[in-house]
Automatic annotation (TrEMBL):
This is Glycosyltransferase. Pfam families: DUF2064. InterPro entries: Nucleotide-diphossugar_trans (IPR029044), Trfase_1_rSAM/seldom-assoc (IPR018641).
Length: 213
């Protein structure tokens, strides 16, 4: 990873490969397996557009290596490759380790790095820019989600312990992360809350947002 355009930060989009039954599973009862798959692709493209619109460097991080990309990834890959983005694979036993490794790699190359999930369409370009600016004064920046987690994490300094032992996927994620950060002596700036898409009502909220443009 190289900072080729003097971008003040590297933005890292985390995403699962689009495969039926493996993505947006909580949407399946309302949308069906195919509908949930298409929702995942739509959301991933929306986030990608938002990140590219910031003007910062962007990289795309798949959840695991595959011998061959699934056929359903074609539209995502076309957009990623069309934008000239580098692609990587997440590494680690849990989300905390995956984010730590990616962020550390980004910090080494850019001094500031930000991870954003692919189900967070409310993370608009202005919100991302605010996160990067916050890293002028804080070691870590977090964008809380309304379900107790967070839609964004950025860092200019980080330790593995700061993201270890957290109960991922629970309403305690943000609280536990803030506790770990305090114990490891990292300063944290918390942005205003945003929402992500997990449940059918979240998907409807996204549909309304797109329809209002």
């Amino acid at each position: 990873m190289q900072n080729t355009e003097n971008s003040p930060a590297i933005l890292m989009q985390f995403a699962k490969w689009p495969q039926p039954g493996r993505v947006k599973t909580r949407l399946i009862p309302a949308l069906g397996i195919d509908g949930a798959l298409q929702a995942h692709i739509t959301l991933s493209l929306e986030v990608l557009d938002n990140l590219c619109a910031t003007g910062y460097d962007v990289s795309f991080w798949w959840d695991r290596p595959l011998e061959q990309p699934p056929e359903y990834a074609s539209s995502l890959l076309a957009n990623i490759e069309g934008a000239g983005l580098q692609q990587y694979f997440q590494q680690g036993d849990d989300l905390g380790e995956r984010m730590f490794r990616a962020l550390t790699q980004g910090i080494d190359a850019y001094s500031r790095a930000v991870v954003i999930g692919s189900d967070c369409p409310s993370v608009d370009p202005g919100y991302v820019r605010s996160a990067v600016v916050a890293l002028d004064h804080a070691d870590v920046v977090l964008g809380p989600s309304n379900d107790g987690g967070y839609v964004l994490i950025g860092a200019r300094k980080l330790t593995a312990e700061a993201l270890a032992g957290i109960e991922w996927g629970t309403p305690m994620v943000l609280e536990q992360t803030l506790e770990r950060m305090e114990k490891t002596g990292l300063s944290v700036y918390v942005l205003e809350p945003r929402w992500d898409v997990d449940e059918p009502e979240d998907w409807q909220r996204f549909r309304r947002m797109v329809g209002e443009r």
